[in-house]
Request: fold
Amino acid sequence: MAEIASAAPQRVATRPRLRGAALLGTVPFFAYVTIFLIIPTLVVVIGAFASDDGGFTLANVGSLGDAYIVEAFGRSIALSAMSALIGAILGAVLAYALVTARSDGVLRRVVTAAAGVLAQFGGVTLAFAFLATIGLSGFLTLWLSEHGIDLYAGGVWLFELPGLTLVYTYFQIPLMVIVFLPALDGIRPQWREAAESLGGTTWQYWTRVAGPLLAPAFLGSTLLLFANAFSAYATAAALVSQGSPIVPLQIRGALTSEVVLGQANLGKAMALGMVIVVAVVMTLYSLLQRRTAKWLG
Amino acid sequence: MRKLSRSAAVTLTAATMISLTAACSPPESESESSSSGAATATSAADLGGLDALVTEAKKEGALNVIALPPDWANYGEIIKAFGDKYGIKVNSAQPDGSSQDEINAATQLKGQDSAPDVFDLGMSVATANTALFAPYKVSTFDEIPADLKEANGAYVNDYGGYMSIGYDSAKVPAPTSVADLLKAEYKGKVALNGDPTQAGAAFGGVQMASIANGGTAEDIKPGVDFFSRLKKAGNFLPVDPTSATIESGQTPVVFDWDYLNAAQSTKTPTWKVFLPPNAVLGSYYAQAISKDAPHPAAARLWQEFLYSDEGQNLWLKGGARPVRAEAMQKAGTIDATAFAALPEVAGTPVIPTEAQNTAAKEYLTANWAKAIG
Reply:
């Protein structure tokens, strides 16, 4: 956003300065951002470098190198990546199916409305829905076992990473539909007609025209899904009660454990680690968004 | 888009923050600190005897307790009995909270009417937070064994129990040892009460499994390895057991304190308590009064009630071993029926020291997620 200072003297009418009264309108925004974004971030950053007696220390951040924390980050990233990829692919297919439907039709309206709701359907309610369906005494589990199929022959995978991946995917797919639909809508039918009249096959159209156009939006949406899963807490907290496999659950343990004490600042250091991971992801996302915006304006 | 000049934005943010912090400061506690000095009383005698304490406490009219589940060591009945006896309203917050949650609440709510008055804590949390407690000696202080109290009464052990294996005899065969749980009959059926890196009861479960497998309370590796084998056999169930999961049959075998498993038997008649022979791990909880208690007199009266014969017998009724059991046995004031109903103990009970626990925790933190992952 560098402004080029021109050498020639200009006589531009100076813009009226914003008066205090005009600034009042921005107070709610800044108040909100301060309370819910700036202060918590500062608390996390300061706490990550604070010792128990309030001094400066690198011990908390150093502890992030401990094997169990590194493993938790590894599992968190793996879970987020898996659920983001599955969600992105299935969500993209569903979104494409919607685009081929009439844009003002009932089907499309119903599905986008449902996606809007389900993308936010997480936490305890979602965990409970899965427990009631395919939990150990879930109705589907019991119905299948009556027919000789044991869902949990190889262990109780629902309460471990495979189960978390499944449950996360449930809210990732609708989110993908919401964020990927605009990009699909931006693909104009004329482009396809142009490709066909120049003798291109469907395969060529997808690999040479639509594919490259949609790739940045697809990757960007996948990154958004990744960040969404990476920061999810309540769903996992309601579902997993052993081993705290992922970072948000490790942070919970650091803050509330009655067994291992004095780890509050270690929890903040882990939160700082999460902030950094999400910051990297969101930077990549915004770069990709910029590329997408060029095509789809 | 009109850009806000940066300095204006900064000023505005700063102004907003200042006005907010002013608005967010907690209201001053309105309850008058009792002039009688209940907040600094270290025994009922300081206030002029038990009757004076009762009068002061009734004046306050309320008591805030925290993290006391009604079905834990009979707390539901204890809270009701205290409220009925003295006409004091007991506000019970976060019944399912952990010991650390109690301390967090005390620091976060400091100076407010809703702050907790009294704590019931695991020993690690109690010994780590003595600065937050008001020392107080109940009338029966001398009857409490010396190794189960802090000399000045900053915290005092209240009730204890042994780590046990609860099982639903209608669903699984009776185990005769910890190792039995590796058998195929227990596939997908064995649970710990919580995550051992977070919950004291689950931590005790791993310690007990360690003692049963040739380890000690300190050398917890054999216990972690046992649960790892249990996991590989497909027997370990990573579900947090509650009364509901036990009644619905989702968690047929649960490692938990014997008084909690015993309490479950009253709800589920087929629920049995098993104490493995020669792997007896004991642990006591501790009472403490908050230094910043909004109801200092009621807090002290609560302690007097808990350590009276009546309070101790109520704990015993819930299957917990009250700290004055021995003295009460001698005096003949103990509830003999409830005392006889406690599970049989075979072998010498191990009560781990803080040093042993610390060593065990380090190993557990580094290896638990891996072992059952």
